[in-house]
Amino acid sequence: MPQPTLTDVIVKSTNTNTNYRQSIQCVGYIEPMASSIDTSTIEVNTNNNNDMHMSIVSPPISPAPERVDASEDSTSSIEGIDLSQVRVESAAVRARLDEELPQVFCESRARIPTTNGQEIFLHVYRNNVDNKEHLAIVFGDSIHSKTLFAPREGETEYDRMTRGAYIGKLYPGRTDSSAKGDLNPVVSNDEPDVLCRIHSECYTGETAWSARCDCGEQLDEAARLMSQAKRGVIVYLRQEGRGIGLGEKLKAYNLQDLGADTVTANLMLRHPADARTFGLATAILLDLGLPKIRLMTNNPDKIVAVEGKNKEIKVTERVPMVPLSWQNKGGFQSAEVDKYLATKVERMGHLLQRNM
Question: Which run of H or E residues covers position 250?
């Protein structure tokens, strides 16, 4: 029997909460090099143990499939797969917009003095779509969670202060959570909208000093700018590895060392190029009373996703995140991060231009 010329990569979602199942053709496909390669349909399953509740959809208008040079050596291969044959339908892979926003509530918050002398208020959020603790890192004392401050049945003033539902600061002997202050302070019309960053967890870049990505630098730079303004929010989503989890992310790193780029590696592991969703971020921002924000991002799809299907959030300004080394402001350089950033621009549609 003759071998088919293409192996379709199909993205399927089997989210039991919405009974949503969709097969999207040509998110990517692989041309086999040898007859030993299984040419049956490869399924990219987003319904795994990483609490992913999203689908990947194609943009309304997509260019013809493009051949992607996975490495300088076009003949490189992984287990008989010619990486130069791995293709994607379009430069950007867009996450599905949630039909309804997730329900979120702030479980607790606490004041965190930081090593740079600034103070933040760390908020822990629960939700109805996964069992993860997502975070809001709030700079300044004028931004408050509605669900945190809402009264809870049977609680005492001490209970409220323990979970962080207080105004001002705690001190030994304090007995009243409702000290002087206003949960909804009047903001001057001349004051810019709150600076926000929607940041997905990256253990390797934030903790393991990885030079494969700029995630750690982006987190630090967002915190620096918000500290300067004394006002801002970083929504920290537990979406390690663009939603595939740390274990799978490490496999993707090994494939990258074998010649694949970050998009190709995910596809070869039968994952979407980007398995994240941002409905939780939208819901958290609304809970914090922030219907209008200035968003720090290079990803235009993130703007659309955070604004939500029903435009619950208005992004009034996109604040670019240019690597510090590109601005001659220090930072770090590596061959790996250069390739990573190039892939984001060329294959994921990020808005980032290096001034030479």
Answer: helix 246-257
Phi, psi of 336 (to 5 degrees): -65, -45
- Residues acting as catalytic residues: 274, 276
Query: CA 347, CA 341: separation in Å to the nearest integer?
Result: 10
Cβ 13 vs Cβ 22: under 8 Å: yes
Contact status, residue 217 vs residue 331, Cβ threshold 8 Å:
yes
Which residues fall within 8 angstroms of residue 217, CB to CB, at 6 or more apart?
205, 323, 324, 331, 332
Q: Which of 112-116, 238-242, 342-346 has the highest mean pLDDT?
A: 238-242
Q: What 3-state DSSP class applies to 352?
A: coil
Give the C-alpha separation, 82 to 84, whole Å.
5
The per-residue pLDDT for range 63-111, each reduced to its tens digit, is 333 333 434 433 344 554 454 444 444 334 555 677 789 999 999 999 9
Structure confidence by residue, pLDDT tens digits, 206-221: 999 999 999 999 999 9
SS3 content of the chain, % helix, strand, coil (to 5): 25, 25, 50
Our measurement of the distance from residue 338's CA atom to the centroid of its chain's CA atoms, rounded to an integer in Å, reads 20
User: Which residue is it, tokens 């950033």?
Assistant: 341
Q: What is the DSSP letter of 15?
A: B
For 74-106, b/e burial (b = at least 16 CB within 10 A) is: eebbbeebbbbbbbbbbbbbbbbbbeebbebbb
d(CA 342, CA 351): 11
Does residue 261 surpass a pLDDT of 80?
yes
Q: What is the average pLDDT score of the chain?
A: 76
- Other C-beta atoms closer than 10 Å to the C-beta of 207 total 10
